[in-house]
From TrEMBL:
Domain of life where this protein originates: Eukaryota
Keyword ATP-binding: no
One of the record's GO molecular function terms: carbohydrate binding
Family of this protein: Belongs to the jacalin lectin family.
Residue span(s) of domain Jacalin-type lectin: 3-148, 152-273, 279-391, 395-540
PANTHER family: JACALIN-RELATED LECTIN 3, MYROSINASE-BINDING PROTEIN 2
Key words, A-Z: Lectin
Species this chain originates from: Arabidopsis lyrata subsp. lyrata (Lyre-leaved rock-cress)
Record-linked InterPro entries: Jacalin-like_lectin_dom, Jacalin-like_lectin_dom_plant, Jacalin-like_lectin_dom_sf
Protein name in the entry: Predicted protein
Keyword Membrane: no
Pfam families xrefs: Jacalin (PF01419)
Length: 549
């Protein structure tokens, strides 16, 4: 897959090694020998399977650092290097790792190292995909591959041209905004940002009494990914020019810039270039007794403990994750017999697992949206339960273009497309074979019967995805029908495939693509001996890289 290569840093002895870019890193074991890092073992993930790589031969004292992959990823590798007398070479002396949860590992190797410092990290928080470097008995040099992450989108400042320029640049997110009002304007703004799990504040403008005449920001309000809108801060009855700063597709706010002096003269913003999904609330099901509870929305659910008492679920304890930290919530008071679930596809039935004659219910997010929180009613036991799920937008169906002959086909919706093989016959595309992925398993579909000259186009799925399908269609004398004459594909990495089929086609042009760069999820159309018409399903882009379905 496409990745960003950093380094290597360190000495020039030992043999070169390169761990091809994987999907991510689950665990790293580091060996220390006297004054250096002498051994490293990495547990990588690739296509849902784990593979290990080892470098250096003197294991020494071993320590490990594991992350909650795939939710938590390593985003930076730090440490030091310098000359080690015992080996008569420049070696890696220490290593440490930072994660997407804001955690930093202990220092592995020489903890009191005064060597040259090293820091390997991808742009914009890209995750660690693999290592490269040099090693022999110990680790001579180390470099890393990181996943590419797009640059944030900068919205230009709107307002006046007085005051001093300020630029907070880009953080991971905004936790709180405090706005100060003076006569007729917004005179002060304080923003609480988050970066690497820590909070930092920035202040602009001062509340200083009478202001000089100038064009100023008169009011501000904010909208969130949960659909909430703040009150209007500043001049609520403002008759000035209105403005709205927002990221494309609902991307989240990352930072402010603008101009300020005694008040806020102009304001602009940085936004993440992808939309933020809105959690969907599933109403509580069950009884109407007990006290209402609502845990709200977290980043994820790590573990659930359920208590059974006689014929009911009498207790539930949920271990949530928020900003890299674990928080627990408990409901019901009679703990009874306790059982827990964390990982696994389907848990056992908790509670009365016999021939229950009650009403059955199922709470689930649309299209596989994950559980983010619970709400409901409880007293001594659990009276009713509802849930919040991550919202996954419905796929978009792009109507088929081409002829009206052949038999209709519809592959439906998969998780993504891994490879496409296209067959060319005289004057047309006569065959197409698609390698789809669904729940990490590969399924193929074929359309058209005359295979002809075969060529293929593969992407590095799931990191690279097909985002548009182009080509042409026209009447083909040999078949006495309107057929697809050519096809080509564009990907989320900006690549464009060769033209498959009739490369010099002058027929009608077709272009199938989803909104906002959504990935290709499936094909539909018409086919017989050749491909008469083609249409597609696309997801809605809501995340980094290929996004979600």
């Amino acid at each position: 897959m496409s990745s960003e290569k950093m380094g290597p840093v360190g000495g020039n002895m030992g043999d070169a090694f390169t761990d091809d870019a994987f999907d991510g890193v689950k665990k790293i074991t580091v060996g220390k020998d006297l004054e250096c890092v002498s051994y490293i073992k990495i547990e990588y993930e690739k296509d849902g399977k784990f593979e290990t790589r080892e470098h250096g031969t003197i294991r020494g004292e071993l320590k490990e650092f594991a992350v909650d992959y795939p939710s938590e990823c390593i985003i930076a590798v730090g440490g030091s290097y310098g000359n080690v007398d015992l080996y008569k070479a420049v070696l890696i002396k220490s290593l440490f790792f930072k994660t997407s949860y804001g955690r930093t590992s202990p220092i592995f190797g020489e903890t009191n190292s005064f060597g040259n410092q090293l820091m390997l990290e991808g742009k914009n928080g890209g995750k660690l995909l693999g290592f490269h470097g040099r090693s022999g008995q110990a680790i001579d040099a180390i470099g890393a591959y990181f996943s590419p992450v797009p640059e944030p989108e900068k919205q230009e400042a709107i307002g006046g041209n007085m005051g001093d320029v300020f630029d907070d640049h880009v953080f991971e997110g905004v936790k709180k905004i405090t706005v100060g009002k003076d006569l007729g304007c917004v005179s002060y703004i304080k923003i609480e940002y988050e970066k690497d799990g820590k909070f930092e504040t920035r202040e602009h403008g001062t509340i200083r009494g009478e202001l000089k005449e100038a064009v100023l920001i008169k009011s501000l309000f904010f909208k969130t990914s949960y659909g909430r809108t703040s009150p209007i801060f500043g001049e609520t009855n403002s008759s000035g020019k209105e403005f709205l700063l927002e990221g494309r597709n609902g991307g989240k706010l990352l930072g402010f810039h603008g101009r300020s002096g005694q008040a806020i003269d102009a304001i602009g913003a940085y936004f993440w270039p992808f939309p933020a999904p809105v959690p969907e609330k599933r109403e509580a099901m069950g009884g109407n007794m007990g006290d209402a509870f609502d845990d709200g929305v977290f980043d994820s659910v790590k573990k659930i403990i359920v208590g059974k008492d006689l014929d009911c679920v009498s207790y539930i304890k949920i271990e949530y994750v928020k900003d890299g930290k674990t928080e627990t919530r408990e409901h019901g008071t009679i703990r009874g017999e306790l059982k827990e679930t964390s990982y696994g596809r389907t848990s056992p039935i908790f509670g009365s697992s016999g021939n229950v004659a009650g009403k059955e219910f199922l709470l689930e997010g649309k299209k596989g949206g994950k559980l983010l929180g619970l709400h409901g009613r409880s007293g001594q036991a659990i009276d009713a339960i509802g849930a919040y799920f991550w919202s996954v937008p419905a796929p978009e169906k792009i109507e088929a273009m081409g002829g009206n002959m052949g038999v209709a086909f519809d592959d439906g919706v998969f998780d993504g497309v891994k490879k496409i093989i296209v067959g060319k016959d005289l004057g047309c595309v006569s065959y197409i074979k698609i390698e789809y992925e669904k729940n990490k398993k590969i399924e193929t579909r074929e359309h058209g019967t005359i295979r002809g000259e075969l060529k293929e186009f593969a992407v590095d799925y799931p990191y690279e995805c097909i985002t548009s399908v182009g080509g042409s269609y026209d009447h083909v004398d040999l078949y006495k029908a309107v057929l697809i004459k050519s096809l080509f594909f564009k990907t989320s990495y900006g690549r464009t495939s060769p033209i498959f089929g009739e490369t010099n086609s002058s027929g009608n042009q077709l272009m199938l693509e989803g909104k906002n760069g959504g990935k290709l999820l499936g094909f539909h159309g018409r086919s017989g001996q050749a491909i008469d018409a083609i249409g597609a399903y696309f997801g809605t882009a809501i995340g980094v890289g290929c996004g979600n379905g």
